[in-house]
Predict the structure.
Amino acid sequence: MKNVLIVEDSKAIRSMIRVSLEEAGGFFAVEAGNGFEALKTLPTRRFDLIITDINMPDINGLELIGFVKSNPEYKDIPLVIVSTEKSDEDKKRGLALGASGYVVKPFTKKDLMSMVKSVLEGK
Amino acid sequence: MAKPDRSIKDFLAEAEDILETATKTLLELETEQNAGRSAPEQVNALFRAVHSFKGLAGMFGLKAPSEVSHKLEFLLDEARLGKVALSREALDALFDTLSLLGRLVHQVGKKQEPEDISSALELIDGILKAKPSGAADRSLLDHIDIDRGLLQVLTEYEEYRLTENIREHKNLFTLKVSFELADFETGIKTLNEALKKNAEIICTLPTAGVAGGGIGFTIVAGAGKTLEELSAALDMRNVSIDPVPYLERRRAEEPRPVDAGVLRSVSNTVRVDIYRLDSLMSTVGDMHLTKNIIGRIVKDLRAAQGLAHLSMDLHKAQRNLERKLNELQEGILEVRMVPLGQIFTRLAQVVRRYAKEAGKEIDLQLSGEDTELDKLMIEDLADPIMHLIRNAIDHGIEPPEARRQGGKPEQGSVKLSAYPKGNHVVIAVEDDGAGMDPSKILAKAVEKGVLLPDHGLDPEADRKEILDLIFLPGFTTRETVTEISGRGVGMDVVRRNVSKLSGMIDIETELGEGSKFMLTLPITLAIIKALIVEAGGQVFAVPLSSVLEIIQTTEKQVETVETREVMAIRDETVPLLRLTQVFKLPPKTEGESLYLILVGLAERRLGIVVEGLRDQQEIVIKPLGKRLTDLPGIAGATELGDQRGVVLVLDVESLIEGAMKKQAVRS
């Protein structure tokens, strides 16, 4: 069972990601509605993957990626960015910070799962 | 004319809220600009408001408001990134466009054709084409001495704000603070609130906490204040503030009249937290109790000598109180009601996606979106309904080739309908797919180990019983349940969710023609009507929403099948349950007649045997307190407001559950 942390401020998109993972099987998904929640959730279990949005209030996705990658305890957890076509520049920055891949909203379940699989296998 | 569409009312309420916020923000933005200050927070807030409006208008399929807000969102995104200057003309255009959105919303409310929006779109295009104010000048970043790693994690917007602060010669600071993991959220929010009054927060970066365990934050802020002023204003001991070195400054323009048009409201909606309504409802419940007590006094007075006239007057007053209470209760219930259309729209989108994924063509037909149900219930229903629809698409509707061969149109049809039925609402999911084959279900149940191979069930004769097998845990092929939401994927979960809402599930299926799942739900769970019954000398309340019918019968009609008491009711054999046995009460000794309370939850039926019926009453179920929670068969207690005092309310769900388990053990 792979533990996945989903960080996304839209409840609808968040649960859509969770359901996609659950349906694919072999994943245990934990949801966080913003960066603060993500920070609180990170120490609660060993995560195998983080899927994060970029545009969020308080702490955005890039800041979260920066935090994960600079923290010895979490730095090996691969990250996947979900963002709109609008935040193209931010997406590039996320990759530069060490995110493993991205999926552009609106995405299909197939897009998401093939990205998740390739990121987990490539690790 | 048809009654006003509730879901459009929802749109109107939210859209007006957003536009009101947007207009307020725009006024603030203008004030700031007029005072010669830049107002990045306001521009960003305005962007977010318009972004939300666009999303909302899109959800309701409103073309004109969507198009205008899309264009406006683009302009504001460019503006917050400094790619477009918000000049005097641009601000005027923003005011005009917000007024236009207000009018478009108004026209939606009045069911009028939207006015022409082309000139507004052109106006915004004009601003976008105008000379840019100079996009983010990243070279400015070289003018400050700041940790380069810190710059890497900034979003485009944050980076732009930093360069703007540098351009404006603001004093820049880095603030470092650490908190315990348990309470950092309150800590950082308090600090940010205080900081916002004195500075612009450019970014908040989480860092590993000092001395292990905790969490730290580095905040970059720009302010007109000096280090001393800022330190004094914050007055927080655990924060260390360091200045970041910097560079020049600028001015702005004159006032303009406020457009009152967008401030006028079209709908009179007030939003209320549903839990407040719950507490009002509970007060109404208590008042019903008091009313019942008055009723008792009326009876006592009537019996007393010489007080007949008083008794009459009080009786009249009591009846009046009852009428008014009922009106009040109905009023509150009505406020709690929302149209099912709210979830139908969400579901329609999901259907499109699932159909695409499943490689099937689906025509989704919705009806009865106006049917209303308690807001809290609607939320709990979304998952079960979604699951039924997915089942219809995955398992019900055949692949296009198979449909063609079967003489059906390639496009499968899924009907989602809702209609009121007395105090209940029926929600049906119907497909024109393959239907369910009892012999296949039997085979699968055996294969999955939920049924022993020597089950002795006949696909024809025991059809209903066999169809019920699909609700057993373990029958569904895919079963993943998360700890987070407790939501699982399987018919057993659908049944559990529906039972929780005191609902029932019925299945109709015809091989080759399709299946229909019908959920029957009580309209609300707040105050329930209960049947007051008697067994073994005790009084119990049975939620009327679970009661299918009451049958007066005799002991002679009770049959015993394999040590289990059952009764034939029309074409169905219903297992019986005696309350005297469940609660170990002395059984009634004399008399042959008895009452059977036929109850049902999800697809299961049970006959509860009682000795007497009292009446029906509105009750508010109160919990039993910690020591008595989870008593099987008891949902709580309620006061009846007469000498009967406090009585126990039966938990029909757990009684059925218990009875079925017993049956499984015995067979």
The longest strand of chain B covers residues 412-421. Confidence is low (pLDDT under 50) at residues 247-266, 477-488 of chain B. Residues 138-244 of chain B form a domain with the Alpha-Beta Plaits fold (CATH 3.30.70.1150). Chain B touches chain A at residues 77, 149, 152-156, 158, 181, 184-185, 188, 203-208, 215, 346, 353, 356-357, 478, 480, 482-485, 489 (CB under 8 Å).
